[in-house]
Amino acid sequence: MDILSYTKLTLEDFINKYRRLLKQPSISARNVGVRECAFLLRDLMEDSGVYAEVIQSKGNPVVYGEVESRKSNKTLLVYSHYDIQPPDPMDEWIYTPFEAGIVDGKVVARGASDSKGNIMAFLKAVEYYVKNEKSAPVNVKFLFEGEEEIGSPNLPEFVEAHRDLLKADAVICWDGGLHPSNRPSICLGVKGILYVELRCKTAKVDVHSSYAPVIINPAWRIVWALNSIKSQDGRIKVKGWYDDVRSLTSEDAELISKIPPEDEDIVRELGIKELLGGVRGVDALRKLICEPTANIAGLRSGYIEEGSKTVLPCEATAKLDFRLVVDQKPDKLFDMLRRHLDDEGFRDVEVVKLGSLLPSKTPSSAPIVQASSRAAEETYESKPVIYPNATGSGPDYVFTNILHLDSVWTGCAPPFSKAHAPNEFNTVDHLIKGVIYAANTLREFKNVKLGK
């Protein structure tokens, strides 16, 4: 029986288990249901024929699994995450976020695409090999963490402490999805991130706004501090911020030139008029892939409910995320940001680091790139879109820098699946294709030559 026939034959069981995982909250930012989800995932892995165990890290548990192969001595380490984003705002969901409702072939739930669908698709592929061929094509190790959505703060130490357990020949980070063109996408790395909070407090309590002429308003202090960080054209104004940014290589330029333009898809799906600065085509792609970013993720101060209230707030905060490109280091940039605010007269604005990740990259010639590319083309009958690095961030450097392994990021989620937003979804069709993609990846990795 081939993989497609097996998946269709057992589809009801597959979707029921997938929905069971979705119905279990695992919100790492609020520590809601994470531990319970780890043990549920362990049970689902065991149901798929995978040896699995929950290993406690200094933070949320890591779920580890492995399947031995009788066909190859190669080992592929599969990474993903079972934690999810908070579901807010709740009133915009068509189903409650942990109901896992199904409508028109879509499964709607928090985590449906990011990344519980990816996890279940890969487990189903391994189940097929174990139950039908009595062996996976290669040895498979699973590393599912419960803190990706909060910056993987404990994963580096966990990986360092479990080097022997995690020995492998390559890593595939199964935490992605398809390109807007519906072609598969493969990222050869990720951007880094520096996540900070700016805080300013000027009084013990909020006061009447009539005091505005004589009392410092912390909201204005935060606004002015933010204005000093970034210009209207998107360039970061902190001195030295771009010093370590590499020039675009000819290899990366060639890869970017082959990526289908995404600007029209972004504008249409998000309902915006145009991209920042009116950029289009390859110029937009270069900005997304190659440039550092500074983003205000949230602002909080004073009275923000309906109606009016004349108040001068006593404190204000802003959350910012900075995406980093290869060779930029978050600790160095954090120090630069602190010095910048001091130099600009904002010593009263506190800067708190909430999380950080190093950027990371794998060469396009790596065997895992070849294997995943062949598997993607075979599955989706089109060549994959290959990015020099993802526009987002992830803990890739723990694999490339600590384990010294090549790593790629890919997956089976639908494009524009509303990850991190209300009504996140996946489709049954995308999940079935994801099972086949994962199965093909294991087979292609068995066949690829490992260069040493």
Structural overview:
This protein is α+β, with helices and mostly antiparallel strands and 452 residues long. The chain has 13 helices and 19 strands. The protein folds into two domains: 3-190 and 360-447, Aminopeptidase (3-Layer(aba) Sandwich); 192-245 and 291-357, Alpha-Beta Plaits (2-Layer Sandwich). The strands form six sheets. The chain has a six-stranded mixed beta sheet with strand order 1-2-6-3-7-18, covered by helices on one side. A four-stranded antiparallel beta sheet has the order 12-14-10-15. Strands 4-5-19 form a three-stranded antiparallel beta sheet. Helix 2 (11-23) runs antiparallel to helix 4.
Give structural attributes.
alpha+beta; six-stranded mixed beta sheet; globular; Aminopeptidase; 13 helices; Alpha-Beta Plaits; 21% strand; 33% helix; four-stranded antiparallel beta sheet; 452 residues
How do the strands and helices of this protein lay out in sequence?
Layout: H1 3-9, H2 11-23, H3 34-47, E1 51-55, E2 62-67, E3 75-81, E4 101-103, E5 106-108, H4 116-133, E6 139-145, H5 155-161, E7 170-174, E8 185-187, E9 189-190, E10 192-201, E11 207-208, H6 218-229, H7 250-257, H8 263-270, H9 281-290, E12 293-301, E13 311-312, E14 315-324, H10 330-343, E15 350-357, E16 360-361, H11 367-380, E17 385-387, H12 397-402, E18 407-410, E19 425-427, H13 428-447
Parallel strand pairs: 3-6, 3-7, 7-18, 8-17
Antiparallel strand pairs: 1-2, 2-6, 4-5, 5-19, 9-16, 10-14, 10-15, 11-13, 12-14
Helix pairs in contact: 1-13, 2-4, 4-13, 11-13
